[in-house]
Structure formats: structure tokens, C-alpha cells
Amino acid sequence: MASSLPSVDFSRMGSVGLGGSFAGLDFWSDASPFALNASAHSFSTTADTLFMREADGSYHVLGSTNAGGSISSVCLINSTNTLYLAGTFTSVESVSATNIASYSFTSNSFSALSDGLDGPVNTLFCDSAQSQVWAGGDFTDHVALWSTSSSAWSTVPFTSLNGPVNAISASSNGSLYFGGNFTTSFASNTSNNATLGNITSIPAAPSSVLTVGHSGYLTPLTYPFTGYIDPYNQISVTAAPTTTQHLYSDPYVLLCPGEAIWLAADNSQAEVDVVGYNYLRATGARLVNGLVEGRGTTVFSINAAPDDTVIELTYQDASGNNQTCTDNCPLSTDPSVSAQDFAFTSGALSLTGLKIHLKQWQGQGAGLSSVQLLSDGAFGSAVTNTNKPLCPGPSNSSSAQHTGNWTTQVYRESAPAIDVYYVTTSVPTGSTTRPSVTFYPFVGAAAFYDIYMVIPGCTALGDCDGRTTVEIQVLPVEGGLTYTTTISEAVEQDTFTLIYTGPVDMTSSSFSPTITLSLAADPAPVQGDNYILVAEAVDLYLTNISNGTSRAAGQAVNGTKGMTNTTVSVSFGVYEYVSAVNAASVMPNTSETSVSRLGFALDMALNMSSESNEFAINTIVQSGNLVYIGGNFTVGGNYSNVVAVDGTKSYALADQGLNGVVYAAAVMGNDIYFGGNFSATATGGTPLQGLAKWDTDSQSWSSVGGVNGPVTDLVVSGSNLVVLGNFTAVNSSGNSVTTGGLAVWETNQSQWNTSGVIFGNVSTAVASGENTVLAGRVSGSSANAVNGIAMLSTGSNGPTISSLANVNFASTGTLSKASPAKRSTAHISTSFFTRFADPFAIRRRLHERADAPSIPITTAAAPAILAGAFWSNASELVTIIGGNFSAGSVSGVGFYADSQLTGPSPSVSGLVKALNVIGTDLYIGGTDVNVTGVGSNLVVYSLSDQKWHTGGMSQLSGSGTVSVNAIRTRMDTNTVVVAGSFTNAGSLGCSAVCLWDAQQAQWSTPGQGLQSGEVRAIDFAGEKFDSVIIAGSFVLPSGDVSFVASYSFDNSTWTGLGTLPGPALAVAVDDKNASNIFAAGFGSDNEPYLQQWNGESWAQQNSSLLPGSIVSQLAFVPLSKEYATSGGIENDRMLMVSGDLVIDNQGNVTSALYDGSTMIPYLVGTTSAGTLGTASTLFWSSPSFSFSVQHFLATGLVVLVAIAMATGFILLFILLFFLFACLKRRRERNRPPPKEMFEKDRDSDVSSTHQHVFDNVQAALEQSLAPSGPVVIDRERRESDASSYADEDEGRETTMRYDFEGPELQPGEMSMKAGQRVIILDDVQSHEWWYARDPASGREGVVPATYGESRRGRNRLTFSLVMCIMIMSSSNRFLPVTCASSDTVVFTPGLSTQQLFRVSMILSSEA
């Protein structure tokens, strides 16, 4: 708050709320955008604005574009203190500039950059070292270069790019990265075609094979010779009936194509069973007919093992058309067909084998030459021996290699003889060992594949506690990038996890695709002491084939030295400029970089994607040796929307990236922040809200607060991250806090800086020292986001404004249609009151007939809070709000508690204008207020029972629109005053003001009642609220028109208070003083007024309220310190005037303070549209409070007074102490001792009187300290004060300090020597004598108490301790002081004088 403003002490009013129609609220200053002398530059609602956020959080507008213009990017050249801005615009302020301009902080002026650029500019990069500004966008050539030294456009070294550029950034080695929606082309030698990602799919099957679909590209499964592992687990082949010809009788030849032929018995149907002992995943079968001796099979069917179900097959007929069959499938007998493929119509099946029924034949019988299962692409096992084929000869099988101590295991499933082979290893959690398995699957044809890692479930294997994460590396293309991702093996059931999608080259003598599984660098925690790794297999699923034409393969590169038989590789979306080349043409492969090679994979994914038109790169940043690229792209199974690249390969970030578009990235230390339109990681592992942090050390994602909309830019400013975008709120500690499209994340504190709000969206920014320059479509700003309801409080630093956390209203409210908010300025004349012109003409005519002028009906655009109240339940203070608003299921009326807004059910419709809490009941009124099934106009809700009251209250009614404007309770009564615009309460005539008895539940008319009219506001006067003051426009019982009147509850009479210019809209009584009343309204001349009633007449106050002002409320508020007021207002308070105010020579104000002569601007509200906000209600929780300013003595003087008082108390108590001691000693001298007691030793150091005094002082202190909580802790354990030691075997032991013997001893006394031990049996019957036992002799008798050691548990409170406590207790203000005696420690906040008085009384009684 500005120090020049009066300091209002809201703390004395309890909790204080201000409701209205505003989205932000600030204390007034000359810098207010609504101040008369405010800067000529202001936010624009129709164009983008360039503005600066100062270090203190304030905003300073630099200028705006033409209407409809936008600013997409800004950058700064520090050496010239010049800012460059670009986007889509034709001018900035008054300077013509086409899409790009500059701003000089030295001259505070804008300038055009020559003729500008002929299309939208998306990004800028300022290179201060080279005095250059790079621009990228969707204009001619898409890249432009501006020289700041020559102030002219320069030639781009690499000529141009062929599509829009969205990002430009610098690398650590001086090169530049470009990202966007473009392609670049690189030449390569055809022999190394795969290096660049260009693959041409060639069928693996010979052309003589009759294929179906893509079956010719599939790799046949290798029948594993599991006998290497288990001799009893081999593939079983049975066939019957079999021919008697020995040459053709071995069915095992069917496993090896081309080895031999098997024939069935003559003229007999036969069955061939090929069954294994583990599951194989197959998509079809390749059959070779046994054509020999004129024999051959013509019709067959296949059943799957082990469930023996018939498989529907798809095949290609002689005409080239696909057909399906089940029981009778034809097998070609054409000798030119070397084999025929039959695809499983339903897709891939997991089976252990096939049962082939040979049903028809040619010649003498059926026969087959071989049976092969077709994979779904390719397959490789982690168990080396299961990759070894049964068939001899050249091997087309997969293989696997292991590093570390892996062991082969077999798991036998519940189905008999079905085994799963896998390898496993164990690694201690603290070990740095990273064992691995590398798969080399045999791929018969280059094509596009999905690669899955097959992971056996941990439940069946019993190793769930040790399962962790593993790193997967895929090298699919020779010389290409390695794709890295991390997956979890903690799966309960057998799982196929997708690890890669894209091109895979065929296996050749020089290359084999490889997939490596290893322990992750940062494994997920496990429950045991060891990580358990498992590996079963990889499965390659063919998704598409490539004919090589999509990359202009085979195009010659003319004029390129040293290149022959060249092809072209296309890179999408990324380009690294290292040296001068023509990027618009085919570039030599020597200019490739790792970033360019990533583009090859992106281009492949682009062509496979159904959403290829949305692919784009939006941001590129570098951290260490990794380049992070974000945008809108997906390389299935590998990475989504973000990927990292180093000099050799690409890396998928954890969980395969993010599940939505990435627009921005920023590097801060070891963390990289990404912003965009996403909600979680790609696999859903980590929930995120538009903003995510990637930890490069732990290789993990974490959430950063979160925002409720897309993030479009991120800017590092010192230790803060400035977040920009199309959002309105951030998630701060579980609460939704409104910020607008700008938020600041404090990385040091890991929290949002929630001060301030921007109304609109910010698109771009750049840090400038401690300040930040921003641009976007912003209509206004505020230091406090309050969204219709603000909480006002006063602390040590003065008044502050805060919001209700998690309260976010919708733009619609409880009214079907609301009038749009109007913005008044100090320069506007009376146009605001044109809506009152006709009503006033009517009023002048009606006034002659003694009818009250009507007050125009006004509405408030949603969201608007028009009424408020507080209710204290058993645990907290509930804030109640009413108005025209909705927030989820809450509308009309809301209850705010525990950081949540709830509402009654059913909800309230209409415009709520008045709230009042009476006990546990909430009274609700307004215009067209209605609750379904309950009532209308005035309804009651039980806060304790959380339900509506139905019945029992007659409804208010009237001839026109019924409105309840005010509800107040008369002090210490059950009388509720209801005021508004109505004529009846049920059948009772009760115009404008009606009284409700909350106890008797009945209406009554105040006195004779008003004849007609409307009351807008009420207040009470008198110590017991003896009268109610009403303001509005109404006719008194006497027939007189009045605008302010008083009703006396004592004599039930109405009294009009003087004459005012027109209807009153607000009234306030100064601290119940009926002779000091203020009223505000408007007159027939459209002039607003503020007048004071002194008990006899009205007096016009100052004339600073200009036409256009509407006063909604008047309220007196206390001040923290006295103010030099004048007129009829005391110097300890001010009149707070709220509404929509225009103050002369000041500007537009939401609330002002009136001191009796001057209207002081105090609060200014701003709507989300950037217009002036209005205030409707100030409400507080304290039913009564004092206006008196508290006066305190100077600290030094307070200390002196305290010392003087302490000294006086000390002297007084010392005097009393000695007086009491002397009196007691004198009395004891004159009193004969008891028969059993004798005079004590005169050499005793402490008399019995002293001992008695000390004992009683200590008891008094303990009793006085007990209620207020001080703690006395003895240094020795406290003992019982009982008269016997029944709980101790021998009593209490002590040692005699003096000799006690001689002829003068009396009967009963026991002689003792100094240093002799005695057992005290009784020390309570007398303070002077103890009854004791000599443990050596067993004698018993009495000994002087003063001759023994001091008793434990009755430690004497030393005189110094008493004095210390007296000093502490010299005033009623408790001080946290510690006093200690030699054997006692006293912790006490101090003793009051009353407590010390109790001590003195005890001492007095002892005396």
C-alpha cells in the first residue's frame, strides 16, 4: 500500500471482505491505469501489447501493435540496449513496421527494420557477439538475417529452408539449430542407403512362393532344437497313416524345407501333427506340397495346438484374389509354385504347434514336403540354444549374446508340457555392474516394424520383489541412430512391451539389427537387496513395407564431386547450420549432423503418421552434450514430443516423453523445463499439467506446480522461471491461484510467486537484467488476483489485500442475461446517466402527486459478489458470499471454509443482494431470487443442518419486480429488518420495509408502515439500535416523499430526515450517532451527491464526485493512527465510499476514503476485460468494534515504569518479610513449647520460624503458578510429604551435622554424633523435631531437625529466588524469564501482582 494513503485498521473489524465486480484489486497510486495522469500507453484489448515486468512485480506498458496484430517473439541485443520484436502486425504504436520492429530503451522509441518481412515471424534469435538478429517464420525463404551494425538485411549463408521455422537457438560449439515444419535433403551413396534411413522392402521369400498380403516379407520361425537344453523337450512330428515306402516315411523331414518328402498311405486321409513344448507366436503357415510320383495334397485344414481349434486361413487364388477357408482349403499342385502361404485370418496366434488334416489328394495319395510357421515379422530368443535350428545347412536364425552372469531357466505353465525359457540374473543394489542381453533377430526383409520386448510375469516366477527398470537400446538401421528408452520389468503377467516403431533393415552378412537390454543407469527401487533382471525374447511385428519411392531414391546428384549412384535422404523438422551450404538443395552427406540424422527418423514417422500435417519442431535447447528437441511428433514406441540427441544416437526420455505438444524448453542448471499442452508422460507414468521438469542426473520427470492451460514459452530470469501461455491459474500447494497467462516459478523455493495477475495471455518474453519484457494479448493487470471477492486485513506492514484460495468463478452467473459492465473515465461527461433521463422525466411529473421517484433496476455482470457475511461454527470462521456467480455446482450463494467453496442444495437462482446470519440461520434476499421447492425473494438456510427451511415464512410480493436489498438484525433482539422493493408479506401490507420476528416466525409492519417506494440501504442508530435509518426513495406514512428516514422502535414512528437532491443509494451512521449520518445518491440533475445529517439538516460535502459516479455502499472504518480530518468525521475513522466512482482531478476509483472534506482514492479494481471494477459490499465479522486509536507509551518509558514498579514491590515485600519474621519470632519466644518438644540447638543455621516461612512461600508459589502453567523443576527428585514412609522400607536417610548429646538430654531424645547416619521416620508432626532411628543400634527417638541434612522434596526457596520472581512479576505483562536457586529451577512467564498478593497474605497469616 502506498505510504501516502490513510492506514485503515481492518484488524479491529475482525475478518473483512470486499465484494464486487472485479478480477483484481489494488491500492490506489498515481500509476494506476485509471488515474487521471496515468501513462499514455495502456494495455490493448484488440491487439498485442509489449510491456515490462519490473523487479517489484509492477508492470510498465511500452506500446501495442495495430488492432488485430500479434507479437510472437522478442529478443534483446544488450550491447545496444535494443529489443527486437516480431510477429504479425503492420505497426507498433505510431510506427509503421511489417511483422518485425525494434525498441530502443535509450530513446524509448520504436523503429521499423527496413521494409520488414512479407509473412508471419514465429521466432527471433539475437546473436550479440555477431551483431545479428536471426528471424524464422512463414515468409519468403523462411529465414532472414538482420545486421545490427549496418542496420540492414544480410544474406543467409545457407540460402533458405523450404517450410516454416518455429525455433532458432545456439549450440555450445557455435552452430545454430533450426526447428520447424520443413525438410532438408542430403545425398548419400546407394550402398549405404540404410545409413540414412532409406530402406527398400524386398520380399524374403522366393518369387516362386505363392504369397498372401505381406507374407513374403515375413521371416519363418525357427523350430528350436530344445534338446540342447532338455533332451526330452524336442519338437515332436507325427504323421499317420504313413506310406510303406521307406524313402518317404520319415515325418521329421517336414521341419526342414527342401530336405525330402513325406507321403501318406495310399488313398487315405492323413493327419500330420507338428507340436512343440513352448509357445510360438505365428501369423500363418507356409506349406510345400509333396509332389512326387503324381501324388500330392489338394485339400486340407489346420487345427491349432494345444486347444485343437480349426484355424480360418486366408490365401491367394489362381486369379490373384484373396480368399478364406476353414475345413477345405486348397493347396496348389502347380509344380512352378515352390510353396504356398496361408495367413491366419484372425491375426497372430500363440500356439505350440499345428495339426494338419490332409483330406483330398491327386494320384495315389496325399503328401507334404515341409511345414513352416510364419512369424509376425521376426523373432529372437534370449536363450541362445533355443535360437539354434533343428535343420542342418545355412542358418537364417536369430542369436543372442550375454554380458554378466545370466542363467537359463524354464517355467512350466499349468498346461502339461508347456515350457517358457528365459534367462535371468541378480545384481546387488549397491553394485555398479550392468549386465546385458543383446538380441540379433534374423530379419528377412527391410520394412517398418514394431519391436516388442517379451517380459515373463513375475508372479509365476516368484521374483516380483526384485524386478526393476531396464534400459533398452535399439539399432535398427546400419549406420543409423541408436534409440534408447527405459521400461519396467515389474509386471505381474507375461507382457509384450513396445520399445520401438520404425524402419528396420534386413539381416545381411555385414549387419544385423540389434536390441540390447541392460540394467538401467538409475534402476527403480526394489524391496530386496538385489535387482532381478529377466529376458525372454524380442518380437518384431511388421507394420508396413517401403518401396523406396517416397524419398526420390535413385535420383542422381549432378555436379557433386566424388558422388556416384547417389540417393537422397530427407530430414524433417531439424537443421543444424555449421557451414555455408545451400540448404534449399540436396546437401552433401558431409554436412550431416546427429540432429539431421534424427530428422531422418522423424521423416519416416511423418510418412507413417495419420496426423502428419501436425508434425512440427517447436523448441531446441542444449544441456551438456545433449540436444533436447520438443514439438509435435511421435515415433511410436520410442519417443513422443520430446527427444534427446548426442553426437551418435538419440535418447528417449523416461516414459517415452510427453503425451502432448511441447512448445517451449528452458535449461536451468541440471534441470530442463518443458512447457506445452500435455497432462502426463507418454505412458501416463507421471501426471503433469502443462509444465514438467526433467532431471538430467536422475533421468526422471517431476511435476512443477502445474497450470490450467497450454504453456507457450519459458524464460529464465535469474533463479526464476517465467512461464507464459494460454492459462489463467496455477496449482500452488494444492490450491488454484489465479495468475492469468503469466506465472513465475521460484526454483530456489520450489514454489509459485503468486503475487499479481495478468488479464489475458502472454505469448513471449525475454529477461532484461532484473526485469522481464513480455508481449501478448493482455487487457490489464493487478497486484492482487481476487476474482470478485477480496479479503482486507491489517498487519505490521499496514493493510493488505488477499484472495480466497481455490475460488475461480465462471463467466456465467445466476442471471440469464446481465448488463455489460461500463467503464467510466474522468474525461467522460454524463453519458453514464443517460439511462436515468427518462425515469427522471417521469419522476418530475409523479412528484407532484407525492409519489416517490423510482430507482432504476441495475444488474451486475457475472462474476459479481454483491453481498457477504460471516458465520462461526464450532471449528472455523465461514465466509459466506452472494451475488451473480457460478463455480461448478455452486451458484448464487457460496460457503468458503477450509480453502474450499461449497453451496446449498438446491442452489440459488437470481441476483442475490443481501445476506444476514442470525444464529445458525442464513437469510438470503435479492432480485428474482428463487430456490426450487423452497421459495422466492427471501429464503432461509440452516447452516448447522445444511438444509433449507421450507414453509413458515410468508413470501414477499409486489406489483412489479420484487427485490430484497438489505437484511439486518436489531441488536439483542429477534427482530430482522428486511428492506427492498415490495408491498406485501403474505397478506400483510408491508411496503419497502418489513419486520420479521425470528423467534415467533411472523411478519409485522413497522409502525404505520411506508406507503410505497424502495429502500436500498439501512443502518442503525442508538446504543441499543433504538432506531433504523433507511435510504432509498419512498413515501412516508404521512404521505411525504423522502429519501432518508428514521424509524423509532420505542414509539413506532417514522420521521423523514430533511430534504435531499434525489434517491439515496447508500447510508451510514457514524458509530450509532443519530446526529451524524451520511447518505449518497443522485439528484434530478444527474449529479451524484454525498451529504451529512447533523440531527437537524443535511449539508453537502465536497463536489469531487463527478457525474458517472454510482455509490453502492457507505461504511465507517477505523484508522491505525489518527488522521487530520475535518468536518463531521472524527480523526480516528473515515467514511469508506464504494462503488463506481469518478473523482475530480484523480480518475476512476472503486473505493475512496472521505475524511470530512476530501475524497481520497483508496482502492481500484480491474475486470478481466481491463475495465474499471466496481465494489458492492464491505462486510466484516465483528458485530461491534471501537474506533478509538490506541496510544502506547514509548518503549523506553515503559521499561522505566516497569523497573520503578518492580523496585517498589521488592522493597515492600522485603519490609513485610522482615516484619513477619520478627513478629513470629517474638510470638514463638513467648509461647511454651509442647510437652514432647524442646528448645532446639542455638547453633542451628536456620530457625524453625524461617523454615516455616520458606515452606509456606514455596507452597504459595506452587499454588499461584499452577493455573497459568509455569513449571518448577527440582534438581532432585520430588519426594512424598506424607507423615510416614509406608512406601519406603527404612524411611528417609540423612546425616547429622552436629553432636547432640549430654546430660541435658530429656527423655525421648536420642543422642547422636556429627556425621552419624539416621533414618527419619516422621518429619511432619513438627518442623523443629524429627522422629528418627539409629540404624547401627536400632534406637529410636527425636532429634533436632536443624541438626540433620536438608530434606529432599522440601527444598528451600532461597531469598534470591523470591526476589527474582518479584522482579519478574512487577507488572501484569508476563515476561519469559527463568529464575533458579541452588537446588531449584523455575520456568515461568511471570507472576501477576494478584499472585504475589496471595503469597503476602500467607506470610501475614504465618506471622
TrEMBL record:
Q: Which SUPFAM superfamilies match?
A: Galactose oxidase, central domain, NHL repeat, SH3-domain
Q: Which organism is it from?
A: Kockovaella imperatae
Source superkingdom: Eukaryota
Under the heading Pfam families, the entry gives: Rax2, Rax2_2, Rax2_3, SH3_1
**InterPro entries per UniProt:** Gal_Oxase/kelch_b-propeller, Rax2-like_C, Rax2-like_second, Rax2-like_third, SH3-like_dom_sf, SH3_domain
Is Iron there in the keyword field?
Answer: no
Q: Which UniProt keywords apply?
A: Membrane, SH3 domain, Transmembrane, Transmembrane helix
Q: What is this protein called?
A: Cortical protein marker for cell polarity-domain-containing protein
Chain ranges of the SH3 domain: 1289-1353
Annotated TM spans:
1192-1223
Ranges where the record places region Disordered = 1272-1297
PANTHER family cross-referenced by the UniProt entry: BUD SITE SELECTION PROTEIN RAX2
The record's section on SMART domains has:
SH3
Pull one GO CC term from this UniProt entry.
plasma membrane of growing cell tip
Q: Does the keyword ATP-binding apply?
A: no
PROSITE patterns given in the database record: SH3 (PS50002)
